[in-house]
Amino acid sequence: MKLIDPAQKENASKYLQLNWMRTREYSVKNGLIASYQVLFRQTDPKDNNPDWDVMLVTEYKDTGQVHSYYDNYSEILKKANPDGPIKVDGKNLMGFLKPVSFTVLDKKVIEN
After folding, report:
1. 96: buried, middle or exposed (CB in 10 Å: 19+, 13-18, 0-12)?
2. Which residue has the higher pLDDT, 41 or 11?
3. Could you point out which of 24, 69, 72, 96 has its C-alpha 20 to 30 Å from the C-alpha of 59?
4. pLDDT > 70? residue 107
5. Burial of 95 (0-12, 13-18, 19+ CB in 10 A)
């Protein structure tokens, strides 16, 4: 994902902690996903237009878990965050970050 405004990196991080990470923490505790990570790219003054600023990673046990997770995502969100998404500075996720790609990697393919 790309930061819409690099000066909003701290607010984007806070939004992810209050929402995306809370949902993933709930999901790990309940065996719905294996793990998750939020990766922030280090700022390089030489790189004026990086491909990404933030990478959101969710690891699933298998392909079936991926499908189950997304089939039940709205229920998972309600249970993990019963009051709904918490806005930061009046913004939701898309107020801070713009998706640039979505990739599913299969561990079997990677190991071969």
Report:
1. buried
2. 11
3. 96
4. no
5. middle
